[in-house]
Amino acid sequence: MSESGNQLFEESGGKLLTFLIGEQEYGIQILEAREVVGMLEIDPVPQTPDFMKGVINLRGKIIPVIDLRLKFRMEQRKPSSESCIVVVDIQGKLTGTIVDFLVGVVTIDEAEFEDSPDLGSNINTVFIRGMAKLDKRVIIVLDMAKILTNEELVLISKPESV
Known about the structure:
Helix content: 10-25%
Largest sheet: 6 strands, mixed
Radius of gyration: 15 Å
Number of strands: 11
CATH superfamily: CheA-289, Domain 4
Strand order of the largest sheet: 8-1-2-11-10-9
Structural class: mainly beta
Number of domains: 1
Mean pLDDT: 84
Distance between the termini: 40 Å
Shape: globular
CATH architecture: Beta Barrel
Number of helices: 3
Strand content: 35-45%
């Protein structure tokens, strides 16, 4: 098992917060999640990447919001009544991520976790920590620290400087 796989079990006991984007279920280490909020009004920020939807004012704190659908190059959809914003810690920066549907918290055993598969040299899977097999479900476990490149982190951290 990889270092990131071991970290998943040592730090969070295999607990994942899971959500849907389209039909696919994704999970993040429970410790990466800070809170889940319903869809709020998102104020757009000019000259930012397409996947950055803007910023929200969450109890007086300005938080950038990214759309994981667009980050993953999926078809854009208007948020539904089931869409929500999962606030995560990405390299020390609180960031909102729009997901289609919050599934909940699951606990996986080490035997149910496999490291990220090799999908070929042309496919960037650095942000995939691995895959969890739970019952008949396959959950793609994301590494939120690697979702954004350093350049993208700079863009969302200081959108006014772009």
